[in-house]
Amino acid sequence: MNRIFSHPFHKAAAAGRRAAALVIAAVVAVSCAVTAGAKGASAASQPASSVGSAMARSGVKSTTKATAKATTKATTTSTTAYDPMNNAYRARTATTTIATSPTQKESDSTTSAAQTTTTMQALSEENENDIRKDEPTAAEQAAAELKEDGSPNISAESAIIMDCDTGMVLYAVNENKQMPMASTTKIMTCILTLESGDVGRYITVTEDCMDLLDGTRIGLKVGDTITVYDLCVGMMMYSGNDAANTAAVAVGGSIGNFVSMMNEKAAELGMLNTHFDTPSGLDQFSDGAHYSTAYDMALLGKYAMQNSDFRTIVGAKSRKIYFGEYSKHGYELFSHNYLMEGLRYGYEGCDGIKTGVTNLAGQCLISHVTTDQGQHFVCASLNNYNRWHDHRVLYNYAKSLYEQVSVDTDISDFNATVVGGKKNTVSVECTPDETYNILKSQKDTVEKQVVFDRFLYAPIEEGDVVGRLQYVADGVVIKEFPITATETIEADTNGWFSDYIKAIRDRESVNADKK
Prior knowledge:
Residues 1-15 and 32-134 have low confidence and may be disordered. The longest helix is centred in the N-terminal third of the chain and has 37 residues, at 8-44. The chain has helices at 8-44, 48-58, 112-134, 138-144, 186-195, 228-237, 241-252, 255-269, 294-304, 308-314, 387-400, 496-514, and strands at residues 71-83, 88-100, 158-163, 169-173, 202-204, 225-227, 318-321, 331-334, 350-358, 362-370, 376-382, 402-406, 415-417, 425-429, 435-439, 447-452, 465-473, 476-485. The strands form 6 sheets. A 5-stranded antiparallel β-sheet has the order 4-3-11-10-9, sandwiched between helices. A 5-stranded antiparallel β-sheet has the order 13-14-18-17-16, with no helix packed on it. The chain has 12 helices and 18 strands. The protein is of the alpha+beta class and 515 residues long.
């Protein structure tokens, strides 16, 4: 197992050592307080001369009249300790009460109580030094996340991180190894359910929905009614196996028919090493027939995040659903994806997707991140006992591969050809107010391409999109921006040719409506 010094449990151990030091210090303080109190009581029973002698022997200057009554002083020590449950350092304070004589001045006190204060300060400083040593710098953290060869230091048996905008694989290990994927299966179940249409329709739970059911459930009962949308929330946010089965029966007519639909969709998406056998991911019923790969699951995650309803569901931290006994006030569910920004192991920009775990599959996670620069990454890992940490490492690694580049929008030498207009060409421009991200390794190979629509039929209005400015590296379109017309071109309405052009445009409009 790879050990990384910044792992939460290593820090928790250091926090334990620091806490023990505070306890020892507190015991010392209490002991000194008791001793000081006893000396005060003893002094009360002695003559004034005896008290003065005792004070002289102890080195304390007598500046006020001696008294038998002792006073107390509260000392508050602040420190910080690592909280592994919340992945953060938390401030902690400890208050120690120390008995002192009213004849002592803080400026020249040399009693054992004052020595205790010095000891507490020393322990506190030692604690703070220990804490600072446990907190790595950004450079140290980045170095700990990489192996000697510069690749991500992760523990997953199978993992991949992909650029969603280009489909480029940025790092992978055993990405084509066929493995069970547990409840990440529900990504396919959910997207098929959403694509079936009318997500507001109500479904009645039947006996068939309870077939081969085990594990996590939202609590559906036969006869309950629930919307298709709430079924998707239940299976994605809470990983409800009963919700997944109910959706499968509602969309496919039976669980068996729905599984066939899942495999057809997998083939359509290019998931060539995947076979679904259950809509929930409960592999104990599949006899080895339910499997996928990290690469295939990344493809599925990339596809699913293009659906707005899906993004809304997996991007929520909590949501209420309504069914059965919860039809009136709702049943609030909370996301199990703790990598979501703002949750326990939150990563900046993480906005989905799904966790999964079974005895056979181990811990699995498919996640998605949208960066401040507008990049989209999907990460998939199977049999990954350190999934939260590993996904963070992979995202950090992926982002380090890119740099921002300014857009060269000068296309003044180009005009677009127009058919059927009073002019044969139209002037154009491209004015994106943004930069784009490119792999550092591709920076010197990127090319700019101006692509116009094959046929531009008049009339054309100023501002109409007539083409695209593309940036291409190694044959892959990295980024593209719209090219627009800067003038209006009226149609030439004279003669048969204009009638022919109008007929073509009308036919294209009808075909577009059918799609």
